[in-house]
Write a structure and sequence with these properties.
This protein is of the alpha/beta class. Helix content is 39%, strand content 13%. The protein has an eight-stranded parallel beta sheet, with helices on one face. The chain is globular.
Amino acid sequence: MKYRLFGNSGLRVSEIALGTMTFGTEWGYGADHAESKKIFDAYANAGGNFIDTANRYTEGTSEKYVGEFINSDRDHFVVATKYSLHDRMNDPNFSGNHRKNMMRSLDASLKRLNTEYIDLFWLHAWDFLTPVDEILRGLDDLVRMGKINYIGISDTPAWIVSRANAIAELRGWTQFTGLQVEYSLLQRTPERDLIPMAKEMKLAVTPWAPLAGGALTGKYLKGETGRVKENSTRRNERSTEIVKVLVDVASKIGATPGQTAIRWAMQKEHTSIPIVGSGKATQIEESLKAADISIPSELMSQLDEVSKVEMGFPHDFLAGDGVNQVLYGGTKNQIIL
């Protein structure tokens, strides 16, 4: 496995991150301790160093397993965890983006992970309640205390992320270096604003669900069962057409549909570090082979075309011939970029 710089930083992370939401069986699925260790070892033995977890994953078991597995070589691994989601129901301050929950949640994660610091601390999802400067100042304090090294933001509108980093830059606070979003052949709407923003601001992009919950493995075309329901956003008439093309492309490059779907995300124009997880070691071993394949440009174009989404306003409006005529006075093609 190769490594990428994490956004506008010098941090080196594997080109595929290990998602550990399946570490533990508290949610009725996932891997027990023994299988989780096999998954972790398969990833580490392939050269992986970037581990993604969160305070809520399997009621804290994921962090406990990760902490145990990295213990013998802690500084080798780049450990990312998150805060924002609740640790206790019916208590308003045990969830959210605010400083009290931030500090409490991080300390609890440090204990579960049995580590003195977190490499990358994600805000998990935007709560639309907490002031941006409260969040930024709290995260900057944690960096200055040495409890975290880098910060990232997940599942948040683009305008909020860009405003936050502008404020942090002006005030000399720590800026977000990573953006985590759902992104796959079945979910390309982040291309409207989130991914262009990340490219402009040099944020690393770590797509979650690059296999769309298994829908992009092609198993539903074979009549197999799984957790993705029929007539859902991931399993419908449009997704079926996308998966059919994916299966065809995969056969042409000698890979599985799942490997091809992961590789597609890795080859998109902006730095993409997909988060890949599984409930079995054999599955993660198969997925990691995405690092060894390449999709030719003509086949990438086929996948792009079948899965494209409408860009909407103002993107389609600004790309129109009429607007280009009045905006550039007919000289756009004469301007060297």
